[in-house]
Amino acid sequence: MIWPRRLLDSPPKPCIPEDYLLRTFRPADIEQWAALMTRVGFKDWNAQFASEMATKVLPDGIFFVEHRLSGKIAATALALPKPTQLHPDGGELGWVACDPQHAGKGLGMAASAAAIGRFIAAGFREIYLMTDDWRLPAIKTYLKMGFEPLFYAPDMKARWQDIFTKLGRKT
Fold this sequence. Notes:
Helices cover about 30% and strands about 20% of the residues. It is built from 5 helices and 5 strands; from the N terminus they run E-H-H-E-E-E-H-E-H-H.
C-alpha cells in the first residue's frame, strides 16, 4: 500500500485515548517490545531482533502507545527508511502491532500516524507499507488512514477486489 503524495501536506494526527500516551523508543523497551511483537504473531521477534531493528529506523522513528496505568506497551509502529526497486526513495511504515487486550481503541492507527508524520518531517515523499491479504483489520485501518492499494503485480487487482469484498467495500 502507498501513502498518496496528495496527502503529504495533511498527515493524519495521532489520536490518543486519555488512558494512554504516545512516546518514542527507549533502550529499556527492548524486552517488552519483543514480547508484544511475539504476542501478536510475529514469530521471529526476540530481544536481539528488536535491538537490531532499533538501529535501522529514523532517529525517533519507533513509536509506542503506552498504557498509563500499567506502563505496558499497547501498540507500536516504526518509520523505517527502506528503499526498494518499487520505492527507490522509500520509507516503510513497518511492524505495526497492537496488543489484543487494547484492541479497538485506534492505538495502532495512532502509532502509525506518528510514524507517517515522522517520515514527512524527515522529507520522505514515498511512504509505503507491506501487509498480508489476510490481515483484514490492519488493511481496514490503513485504508481509513488514507493509504491506497498499489497495483504492482499482475494479480494485484484481483487480490484487492477480494480484499474489498471481504471488507464489504466497493473498489
